[in-house]
Amino acid sequence: MNTPLNGIRVLDLSRILAGPWAGQLLADLGADVIKVENPKAGDDTRQWGPPYLKNSDNQDTSEAAYFLSANRGKRSIAVDITQAEGQALIQKLAAHVDIVIENYKVDGLKKYGLDYASLSALNPKLIYCSITGFGQTGPYRARAGYDFMIQGMGGLMSITGEADGNPGAGPQKVGVAVTDVFTGLYATIAIQGALIERQASGLGQHIDMALFDVQAAVLANQASNYLVGGITPQRMGNAHPNIVPYQAFASKDGHIILAVGNDGQFKKFCDLAGCPELALDARFATNPSRVANRLVLCEHIATLIKQRNSEDWLAALEQKGVPCGPINTIDKVFNDPQLLSRDMRIQVEHPLAGSVELAGNPIRYSRSQLNQTKAPPLLGEDTETVLRDLLGLGADEIDQLTLKKIVR
């Protein structure tokens, strides 16, 4: 296949979500990603269910939906890195790969001889990406870090949820582990940057990724509202701190999102809603004035939106070019004709279930292809193949390692 990362090989020592997300994206882009797992139970997320994948008899398999979400396209080898022979296998494999991804605690792999210093001595071209809660330096470096706590520490929960004084007020986490996902994306970008740099230098390097850093970075305009404007952002429910009207409103039979991004769109909305005078009112004519008079304007808009059904509003607003949308449940998302037309719901063969449905990769190239044909692997599915093909081990040697429970 004409994939962007064809010929690149990755050793993925990571678990849970941030590291595996980066590994899955690299696999989608064509890299050969070898996932190293604990022979006893594998990646923690294999047990993070229900739900579990169903087999042809509609019975639960051992494959949790969570694991399936982040490990497409990889090969799995089960190696006990706590034992010297297991460590030796990983060290030998590191000489045959371009990239290592790991998310152990700081210095957690040093005692096994699998840290950057040890492996780069064996392979100077190795790009080694470490993902931790707080990074390799700083006063918090030794702390464990998980998405939920980083959403709290990193400010995201302080701006997510209803404002104080409103029903249901209080900090809320996002419904997806977005800090992990963002960290996986940043890690992938960093790895590809290091691959390009290696073409000139001939050397690999260590990449230090921290969930806390990433969460601060993706605060985006909210970070600038504080750093530039000196304003500490607060929870505002579905409202936007810098744009009005840009939030959810209750309709006669549900809710819609009204996302007015400029003054022209606001005028179109007012004309459509039968209140053109609002667009001429000095309190609402420009976005800064609408932000300053947010409460009175949104109360008026809320009354208007409540008078018609969601479907009526969405059809009329779309026809006039006013940005709007429904609030879909996930089942509606994955049955949306637009999403289906973009191949965002894919089906791949699976050894236990016959096939498994997954969310597709959103990248679209004009010439290159993605590789999304291999299902997330069973635990140790590829141990024998990898040890034979990359390290030249014979069947007897692999059998001995299996008997000693070094591999599975």
Automatic annotation (TrEMBL):
Keyword terms of this UniProt record: Transferase
Name listed for the protein in its UniProt record: CaiB/BaiF CoA transferase family protein
SUPFAM superfamilies in alphabetical order: CoA-transferase family III (CaiB/BaiF)
Coiled-coil regions listed: none
Single GO molecular function: transferase activity
Annotated transmembrane regions: none
Superkingdom to which the source organism belongs: Bacteria
InterPro entries xref list: CoA-transferase_III_domain, CoA-Trfase_fam_III, CoA-Trfase_III_dom3_sf, CoA-Trfase_III_dom_1_sf
A Pfam cross-reference name: CoA_transf_3
Gene3D superfamilies: Crotonobetainyl-coa:carnitine coa-transferase, domain 1 (3.40.50.10540), formyl-coa transferase, domain 3 (3.30.1540.10)
